[in-house]
Design brief:
single chain, alpha+beta, Leucine-rich Repeat Variant, 11 strands, 8% strand, globular
Length: 524
Amino acid sequence: QDTKWLAKYKDNGLLSATASLGLIVLWDVDGGLSLIDKYLYSFDDNMKAGALLACGIVNCGVQNDCDPALALLGDYVSHKDTPFRVGSIVGLGLAYAGTNRDDVIELISNALREGNPSMEVISLACLSIGIIAVGSCNADVSTTLLSILLERSELELKDHFAKFIALAIGLLFLSKGEAVEPMLESLKVINEPLRSFATVLAECCAYAGTGNVLKVQRMLHICSEHFENKDEKKEGEKESSKDKDKDKDKDKKKEDETATQNAAHQAAAVLGIAMIAMGEEIGSEMALRSFGHLLRYGEPVIKRAVPLALALLSVSNPKLNIIDTLSKFSHDADHEVSYNSIFAMGIVGAGTNNARLAAMLRQLAVYHGKDMNNLFMVRLAQGLTHLGKGTMTLNPYHSDRMLLCRVSLAGLLTVLVSLFDVKQTIIGKYHYLLYFLALAIQPRMLVTFDESLRPLPVPVRVGQAVDVVGQAGKPKTITGFQTHTTPVLLAYGERAELATEEYLTLTPVLEGFAILQKNPNYVP
């Protein structure tokens, strides 16, 4: 009876549908696992694989002494069937993201040597290892990932899944700056076209959130490259007679695919600009202007990546100019540009319940009513806009936007990189890649507790944050405030301060879960 709602899904759709249970019971390990448990005994391989992935999603960002994810998923990592391997490996990656646990990394690494894994399994295993060891510069892991890349044939390196191995290497050095230099040298031995892609992505990841102007300039320089062989081919096409129209179409398709592969590193560079500049306001404004130029004058590959970069630049922060730009390109003739623009609208408005954005998406749903793929993207964007009924955010910055959460950024990057080949991945058979967004989901409410961790409702002032760095005395830190009683939702760029002197905060920043103590000097 409980599984009746799953009956209408088939094959890979069933895997993703079952895994969605993990998001519904996200962070509730005890209650969630008992709900998912019955699906683990299903006779359908995809349903069972989806349940394995759901187990990983539930444990995402939760520390548990019992290690339920490892106990449930560990046995399936070396299974002979691909769906089970995918469900368990991705599940382990989500459950142990950022922990740098040697036992989990070793378990996944050993699984790659057993059986004859497909490129899908190899790439997702590397990605899971990269997410588990994110920002750790782990030497053993980097050696393992590099050797896996070197062992792949030229045909395998052209597979759209190969990009995830490159991303795994980048995640290993996320926000670590110059520590990536030895790896960049090592990557020079890999064959093109993946060499350029991996090098650019690793360099961008290493300087993520730093605002490094020189690196942004280097990425812009990569975006300005132009591949002459395409023009030569086009000239040759013009000369050919009308009899060869069919051959021309075939050649053009092949040529587009080759061009996309050759210029994949340009897409990585576009995303890299947003990655590096996302840390501070002025850099973001400058990057925004550069993206305007790239949208107008860039190659098709660049044009497809710009909406994703705009999304990364403004996660859960629906600025009018960015929403309008994305709305314009959601009607683009190039399907991949429109898919990415629609999805980017969802990322930009994630968890905000933004009324203007919701209205735009409703209009898009009517406009694309007969195009299933665009409609699929619109529904995803609508879901993201109302993420957690408007109580969640995907923004990787916390503590007054001063600190970057590497795990959150890793989840966002995985989904955005998968959208480089949106037709083969999200719109194809691999829509379960969207569940990597679970790594970035955080509550955006402020909840206050007393020292015994009991909820404590107190009045707080919530308003727009004012930059008071370097000012003498005690300047006002917020402007245009309203007084609420906790728990209260904080939007992007808002700050809270206590409206009563009865309590003192134990943390310098009032955000998320804050512990308060009684003020011993308080006189009612």
